[in-house]
Amino acid sequence: MTTADRQSAASTAAPPDALRELLQIDFSQDNIAELVLRHSIDVAASPSAQEIVLALTREIVEGDLAPGSDLNSVSIATRFGTSRSPVREAFAMLQRQGLIEVPPRRRPFVKSMGLDDIHDLYRVRAELYGFAAEQLVLRASDEDILTLRRFQDARHDAIADGDTLRYHWIVVVSRMAQIALTRNKVLTELLESIAVRDMVPRKLHLDRPGELVRSSADHDRLQLAFEERDAKTAVGISQRLVFRGLRTAEELFHTRFANN
Question: Is 132 a member of any domain?
């Protein structure tokens, strides 16, 4: 099938369910983080465990729970008005997502990422996001690509409001939308498997002075490359966004090591 054939097929296909859900998110809401995170929660888990995972994931990503912080199951059960069973279920989910460690006969704690882990994560992300950008250009319809402008407008509003957290979550959901438009199930599954773990260093990167403006400018150029069907430029910009985050993560890691 040629590129034109793929684009023609995409133009007659319904938007992916994941994209339709993401487009319904109200970016002005204070609970945008929970709305985004619900897409990464195991729906087979109990409602109580899901709520605990949502809350703790947000606190880890946004820095309220720092690496190394202990997680007391009794305190958490009391906080959420539940027994310890949903707490243990939530801990198991968070461990699978790579956010916490649950050592035997010891209290669980928020996981720290080593430099090797950071390098591995970012290199994998760069390759996958680069491939996703190429696939989006090849497979998405013009109408699909134009729907991504909604995220662009939301990013600009967050910058105007000086709201780093809201900007962070909008970038997360815009990346999720881009992945949905590739219509590549294997790629989607691979990126979803590292999505939550990826949010922690990304948030730290955006906290740097001036980074919101630089990030948004690159995302604007990425949107333009999508609209112009320029796969080479889209791949380059998508990977550059990742590697700039890697440089920040390396600097933060060495600073923390030096201070210790």
Answer: yes
